[in-house]
Write a structure and sequence with these properties.
By secondary structure, the protein is an alpha/beta fold. It has 16 helices and 15 strands. Bound molecules: 6-O-phosphono-beta-D-glucopyranose. 6-O-phosphono-beta-D-glucopyranose binds next to loops.
Length: 480
């Protein structure tokens, strides 16, 4: 038979991520006709709730968090696809009930596909997956079964290995989809296009023409209600190990043979294996840790906490293309604005003397809140005297496309439903990034307290940040 149906099983159905991201993303996929035929979702939570009540909650989440205009009719058809199911993550017999629930939905002559989505606290990841096996759900005859797993994937290399051992005793690597939502952001996906479909960039994307790369992911918000998770984590683990290193790999990788999943992932892995080892010498020239004032008073945060809410670090890639080019990574919470961008600073070109040195060309890849690309050029200021001036050529994507770019989760859910894991993190990528971040943490942990620099909420971070960039004409371009 060719008939099939797809069931998404969401663990953590009453959680924040489900309401803010997953449900609005599914709703938008539904409106645009991207959901597979005969799609349903079972949203699992620990609370007692009827499906009716749950659908009420969905209504308000969609109204609040979906970027599309609300449509009564499409909500009706959408909400009918979703049912609420109560299950205690720690209770084995509950999983057997879930298996019976799934069996009761079997249809004669229709093949099933299952997407299990773990939107729960990481402490349950392993337990849920093992129970999918123990209850017999995993053995159910199906076209495919995939596991989508949120971050954080472990707290260090060791715990990541433990978690991976346990989930890969149940799912094959090819069926494990580890989320990094930054990779799915519209402008990040644009980088391949920009680099490889434009001769002017492809040919100069190397150490001969680029002096440094700055990857900045800044947030205005503090930790909010997430202190319990964040205080044991910090910015290195929460942002650098995954999002920032992924952005670095996508910016720096060699052109993959094709854009097929493994070709792309193999190139990223090569970048991660070429990272110059992080040693403890001259620590302050390679790493700044900051903590915003007032962090220690946040809910569920240790009043004497040494956790970093900001990191600036300098990374080198030891290969032919990038030898000697610093990649500056900066991320932090409680800053002036929420912005993310990748800034490529080219080498200066000063053939003639116009009384003032020219500025380096700068390529800004703007990720959020605005999406776009800006190129800084030196030109002659109009007038009878030759004077050099800097102009910006601007492609504002968010101005041009009046609808919102698809949210990362829309893209990720669709890819996972279609079996495309290119944007998800393969196990070897994860191992290498953890290994790198572990080596930083190891150096930091002895002197963390003395290293930590305080900064004001709403500022541009600690004072010393500006001197962190190597001398010369270079500076943090995000400060412009
Ligand atoms: C998450 C981090 O992965 O990314 C959060 O755990 C952070 O601490 C968030 O706030 C930022 O994502 P975005 O898409 O809002 O920039």
């Amino acid at each position: 038979t060719n008939k099939s149906k797809t069931t998404m099983v969401i663990f953590g159905g009453t959680g924040d991520l489900t309401h803010r991201k997953l449900i609005p993303a599914l709703y938008q996929l539904h409106i645009n006709g991207f959901l597979p035929e005969d799609f349903t979702a079972i949203s699992i939570g620990r609370r007692d709730k009827t499906t009716e009540e749950y659908r009420e909650d969905l209504l308000s989440s969609i109204k609040r968090f979906s970027s599309r205009n609300f449509e009564e009719e499409s909500f009706e058809s959408f909400s009918k696809m979703i049912t609420y199911y109560r299950l205690n993550f720690e209770d084995q017999s509950d999983y057997e009930d879930l298996r019976r629930e799934l069996e009761s939905r079997d249809k004669e002559g229709v093949r099933d596909s299952y997407m299990f989505y773990l939107a729960v606290s990481p402490s349950y990841f392993s337990e849920i997956v093992l129970n999918l096996k123990a209850s017999g759900i995993r053995e159910k005859d199906s076209l495919w079964q995939r596991l989508v797993i949120e971050k954080p994937f472990g707290q260090d290399l060791e715990s990541a290995i433990r978690l991976n051992d346990s989930i890969s005793s149940v799912f094959d690597e090819k069926d494990i989809y580890r989320i990094d939502h930054y990779v799915a952001k519209e402008m990040i996906q644009n980088i391949n296009m920009l680099r490889f479909q434009n001769a002017i960039f492809g040919s100069i994307w190397n150490k001969d023409h680029i002096s440094n790369v700055q990857i900045t992911v800044l947030e205005k918000e503090g930790v909010g209600t997430r202190g319990g998770y964040y205080d044991g984590t910090g910015a290195l683990r929460d942002m650098v190990q995954n999002h920032l290193l992924q952005l670095l790999a996508i910016t720096a990788m060699e052109p993959p043979v094709s854009l097929d999943t493994d070709d792309v992932r193999n190139e990223k892995v090569k970048v991660f294996s070429s990272l110059k080892p992080f040693t403890g010498e001259h620590l302050d020239e390679k790493l700044i840790l900051g903590q915003y004032r007032g962090y220690q008073d946040e809910e569920k945060v240790d009043p004497d906490s040494g956790t970093e809410t900001l990191v600036a670090t300098k990374v080198y890639i030891e290969n032919e293309r990038w030898e000697g080019v610093p990649f500056y990574l900066l991320t932090g919470k409680g800053l002036k604005n929420k912005t993310a961008q990748i800034t490529i600073e080219f080498k200066q070109s000063n053939r003639y003397n116009y009384g003032k040195v020219s500025e380096p060309n700068i390529l800004e890849i703007k990720i959020q809140p605005d999406e776009g690309i800006t190129l800084h050029l030196n030109i002659k200021e109009p007038g009878v005297v030759d004077k050099i001036a800097m102009v910006e050529m601007d492609y504002c994507q968010s101005c041009l496309y009046l609808f919102n770019s698809p949210d990362s989760y829309e893209k990720l859910l669709l890819d996972a439903l279609n079996g495309d894991s290119t944007l998800f993190t393969r196990w070897d990528e994860l191992q290498l990034t953890w290994k790198y971040v572990d080596s930083i943490l190891e150096k930091v942990n002895e002197s963390r307290k003395s290293m930590l620099k305080a900064y004001e909420v709403g500022s541009n971070g600690p004072e010393d940040l500006s001197s962190f960039i190597d001398s010369g004409a270079n500076h943090w371009w995000y400060l412009n």
